[in-house]
Design goal:
A: 12 helices; 0% strand; B: 672 residues; Neutral Protease, domain 2; eight-stranded mixed beta sheet; five-stranded mixed beta sheet; elongated; binds zinc ion
């Protein structure tokens, strides 16, 4: 099974389940709304019936922004709000947090929301893979949640296992390497040295994070396909699978990743063009934002679907070659 | 020595002498009180500068003086109990590393000889050396030295002292010192204090204070290994190869109040010339770290912008040369000003939109005016240089480069500029000032602010906001005249806050004490707001009214509008409040739906004022300080109210935030 075949059939399956995209988007919106409302009401309080409303409709006013952040400085999460999270800023800020583990410094309000969302998606991961692996490959709320329920316990254990690895990365590797970079930077001849080291560290960090993520994707896939029970065994076998088929697993993973980046680029090129000075255009920008979120969800589903294909395809090939090998041992030995 | 070399040397000497006599021929720009001739040598291995200085000092006071006070700034790095390092632990604990033995710095005065008339034996006054601590009595602090003269020095008499000293440079953690083979040698020699206002003004070295000294002539010979590239205050008159692997450079500058120099084998040297329609030509020298080659043009450009605008606004740069130094990485010497030489600071991967090194270059070069030429007491009136300069650099930055943009560094490395979101350079000051607005008076002694932040926001941010507010209050022409007059009157002297206030009052012909008393000598907040607006048809008359001596029952008649009954008249009320304690005259602009506008001027004295209008149109909005002149107003959003508030921005920004949050949540699925 080649990666493009896995991807093609994977995409086909994802496209068959449009209801699933929208279901996931609705959940994403609902959870995001939990903290959007307080921000909205803070904005409303701040702008109130001042002429600032007029100015902010037409453009941006630094002095208001500065006062707003100051006024709500004790809320914790509002201080994360800044023009640097607009458009592509969202992508950069979140990827930055992913690599450096910076989100552990976010206010508890946001952390709780993130935790809830992670838990929900542990449940959904079972639903997604269950639906994709089922013979009908068709999304129904009932089926989705029943699969989710079936695998939740096992996927939660996988989450704990992966959490240990991520924990090591964020709480040991990141501070350890930042320490080294600082130490080397302290004696370096120019700021370029720590910066280049920082780039190298980020690249390595990306690579390891993605690798761990991919391994646990396959651990979930194995669990669903083979109805595995021991998550340690599944993880071990997933590691074996990934490394045995390193080129293909990596190739597929990064190809889909690049697709995600392409969507981001398209989004961030178009977003600033929507001048949000009238309600219609604000709405249009909102719709465009949701279109992008839908694409992101599509990318996530494509990861699951295509990797599931690759796994099953390679398993089948292995079985076929095993049968062939047992049928003509001389061939297998050659 | 071969002939070519000798001819070259003679030529050099002649050129130098020419330049020298040319400099001497000019009318002195300053009263040359403290004049130094120095001959020192750098030992780069031991990080030691040793040699001697001959100080010629004029007692410019009206009293006899039997004691002289000197700054020995380098002793601030002698041990961890000095005033500077003690304060640093409290104020900037994150900035001061643990110093190893070889990182410490100090200065030993080996001898002080009083040189009399020719033929008279010099008198050794070394035994009279005494360390004093006028500011805090800290016995471990030896940054101020006192010597006693055998006989009092009469007023307007000059004294000549021959001082031998050895200075061990510290690791560069605060302005001065070394980092490997990079040397930035500042505050390094025994430097006499200032006798003014009837006393010695010679403060200890504090972590949140800069310097103060009298003007004079510096003639300094520096000897060091010949592979070092050197920059210093003044112009290089000559250089001499000593034939032993060392070279001696002589630098000379008149009418300055300090001397700094830097040496490193790695500097790239660039020269350029600032030219202008009517300002004198200035040679611009850039000493650049090799890894910052890409910043060459940006440093020079920014320096020229400063020379141009400060020159046009306040007065010409009076020296023939200015040196911009790109400091070595982690040398602690960046962003500092010295006469005719300043340090910038650059960081790899910094596009011009981030205004670095432009911002720091303009600020530090600008100090040549506000610190260099206007020699205010930085220990006691820090806002007079930092505030004036921050205000001026805001203006230059805006003129030369346009607005600032929001930006962030992705992974703390790659810069991303958000060009959609820009702001005026001056507005940044309020962010710093607002949280600390009431902590301290701006006029406090530099080391007596509650914290380092309070020192910073009061000297820089509030200083700049004050000058902006003053400019807008006076209007551009009058304000330009004020600053120019002040600069011209006080150049090469030591003005106090009152001297500036006097100039403001003289130029404007107004009593401005209300402004300075509240803002410079006070710490109250300034905040005006529109409290309430309303507009409704005027109440019609109803009831018994006495008309022409008879009681009549009237109903439904509009007051005073008997004829025009078909037209609806609205009564509109606007209440303006003073929320802060600072009283400031403000304008209130009231706009009606028919486009009519009325501007009121309120003295701002009482806590609030009500304006009532009767017009055939409904009120639309009211705004206090509509032209946003009062930069010191800590809340600008509450300055206005409208009858038709807009809901759109709250949605717009909430949606933008929501997108970030949605994106963040999706990013979290990485872990699920
Ligand atoms: Zn400054």
């Amino acid at each position: 099974m080649g990666i493009f075949k896995a991807l093609r059939t994977g995409i086909k399956r994802v496209n068959k389940n449009k209801k699933m995209w929208f279901f996931l988007l609705v959940v994403n919106i609902l959870v995001a709304l939990v903290l959007t409302f307080p921000l909205y009401s803070a904005l409303k309080t701040s702008i109130g019936d001042s002429l600032m409303g007029e100015r902010l409709t037409k453009g941006f006013d630094y002095r208001w922004y500065d006062e707003f952040r100051y006024k709500f400085r004790d809320t914790g999460f509002i201080t994360l709000w800044s023009p640097t999270i607009v458009g592509s800023g969202a992508f950069f800020s979140n990827v930055d947090s992913l690599v450096t583990g910076r989100f552990f410094q976010f206010s508890p309000t946001i952390l709780i929301l993130m935790a809830v969302y992670v838990l929900l998606n542990i449940l959904f991961a079972g639903g997604i893979l269950g639906v994709f692996h089922s013979p009908e490959e068709k999304f129904t709320i009932k089926g989705f949640f029943s699969f989710g329920g079936t695998y939740f316990n096992r996927f939660f254990r996988l989450f704990i296992l992966s959490g240990v690895l991520y924990g090591v990365l964020y709480f040991l590797a990141v501070p350890y390497f930042s320490g080294i970079i600082n130490r080397i930077g302290g004696t370096a001849a120019s700021e370029r040295v720590p910066m280049v080291l920082g780039i190298i560290f980020a690249v390595v960090m990306f690579f390891i994070l993605f690798l761990v993520n991919m391994i646990f994707d396959y651990a979930k896939i194995r669990t669903v396909v083979g109805d595995g029970r021991s998550m340690i065994v599944q993880t071990g076998k997933a590691i074996g699978f990934v490394f045995k088929n390193f080129g293909r697993t990596m190739g597929l993973y990064y190809f889909i990743g690049v697709l995600g980046i392409v969507f981001m680029v398209i989004y961030s090129v178009v977003e600033p063009q929507i001048s949000q000075v009238t309600p219609l255009f604000v709405l249009l920008a909102f719709v465009w934002q949701q279109v992008y979120m839908l694409c992101r969800i599509w990318v996530r589903l494509t990861f699951f679907s295509s990797q599931l294909n690759l796994f099953m395809g390679l398993q089948k090939e292995k079985k076929v070659s095993k049968t062939a090998a047992s049928a003509s041992p001389s061939l297998a030995e050659s | 020595m071969d002939r070519k070399l000798i001819a070259g040397f003679i030529g050099l000497v002649l050129v130098s002498m020419g330049a020298f006599s040319c400099l001497l021929a000019q009318e002195p720009l300053s009263k040359r009180i403290a004049n130094y001739t120095m001959d020192v040598r750098l030992d780069p291995e031991k990080k030691v500068v040793s040699g001697k200085e001959v100080l010629t000092w004029l007692n410019d006071s009206e009293v006899e003086l039997s004691e002289l006070y000197f700054h020995l700034y380098l002793n601030a790095f002698k041990n961890n109990m000095t005033t500077l390092l003690t304060e640093a632990r409290r104020v900037y604990p994150w900035r001061i590393p643990q110093l190893k033995k070889e990182d410490l710095g100090y200065i030993d005065v080996e001898s002080i000889m009083l040189i009399g008339e020719e033929g008279v034996e010099p008198i050794d006054i070394t035994p009279t050396i005494e360390y004093v601590q006028p500011d805090d009595g800290n016995p471990y602090d030896q940054t101020v030295m006192k010597v006693t003269l055998p006989q009092p020095l009469p007023p307007q008499q000059t004294i000549k002292l021959d001082i031998s000293f050895t200075a061990k440079l510290p690791l560069g953690i605060a302005r001065t010192g070394f980092r490997d083979d990079y040397f930035f040698v500042a505050q390094w020699f025994p430097k006499i204090g200032v006798f003014y206002e009837g006393a010695w003004n010679c403060h200890q070295y504090h972590v949140t204070s800069e310097f103060f000294a009298d003007y004079g002539v510096y003639d300094v010979s520096l000897t060091l290994p010949s592979n070092f590239i050197v920059g210093a205050t003044g112009i290089r008159l000559y250089e001499r190869d000593n034939g032993d692997g060392t070279i001696t450079y002589n630098y000379y500058q008149e009418d300055v109040h300090d001397f700094v120099w830097t040496a490193s084998p790695h500097y790239l040297v660039y020269e350029d010339t600032f030219t202008h329609e009517y300002l004198p030509e200035v040679k611009v020298i850039l000493l650049l770290q090799p890894y910052h080659k890409m910043f060459k043009d940006r440093y020079i450009e920014a320096t020229k912008h400063a020379l141009r605008y400060y020159g046009e606004w306040y007065g010409a740069y009076p020296y023939p040369q200015v040196t911009c130094v790109d400091p070595a990485y982690r040398s602690g010497s960046g962003g500092m000003e010295y006469p005719t030489l300043f340090t910038g600071g650059a960081y790899w991967l910094t596009p011009i939109e981030l205004r670095s090194p432009e911002g720091v270059t303009i600020h530090e070069c600008g100090h040549e005016w506000w610190y260099g030429i206007i020699g205010n007491n930085e220990f006691e009136d820090a806002w007079m240089d930092e505030g004036f300069d921050s205000y001026s650099d805001d203006r230059v930055l805006e003129k030369a480069y346009g607005p600032y943009y929001f930006s962030r560094r992705f992974l703390q490395i790659f810069p991303i500029v958000f060009k959609r979101f820009s702001y005026k350079p001056a507005w940044g000051s309020m962010s710093g000032y607002r949280p600390y607005a009431e902590l301290d008076d701006m006029s406090r002694l530099a080391w007596e602010f509650m914290s380092g932040t309070s020192y910073g926001v009061n000297s820089y941010s509030k200083g700049a906001l004050t000058m902006w507010t003053l400019e807008n209050y006076l209007g551009p022409e009058l304000s330009a005249k004020v600053f120019k007059t002040y600069f011209q009157r006080w150049k090469f002297r030591h003005p106090r806050p009152q001297d500036f206030i006097d100039v403001v009052e003289e130029v404007t012909g107004q009593d401005m004490s209300w402004f300075f008393d509240q803002i410079v000598f006070g710490s109250n907040e300034l905040d005006y707001a529109i409290e309430r607006i309303s507009s409704s048809p005027v109440t019609k008359k109803e009831g018994y009214f006495d008309e022409n001596g008879e009681r009549a029952f009237i109903t439904g008649e509009e007051e005073g509008e008997k004829e025009e009954k078909e037209e609806v008249i609205y009564q509109s009320n606007v209440i303006v409040r003073r929320l802060g304690e600072v009283v400031f005259p403000v304008e209130v602009l009231v706009t009606f739906e028919n486009g009519e506008q009325e501007k009121k001027v309120w003295d701002g004295e009482y806590r609030w004022v009500r304006y009532t209008f009767k017009k055939p149109s409904r009120l639309q909005s009211a705004e206090v300080d509509p032209d946003h002149k009062i930069f010191l107003d800590v809340n600008y959003t509450n300055n206005s109210k409208t009858m038709n508030p807009r809901k759109l921005p709250a949605y717009k920004w909430a949606f933008r935030w929501m997108f970030w949050l949605q994106h963040l949540l999706e990013t979290c699925t990485f872990f699920s």
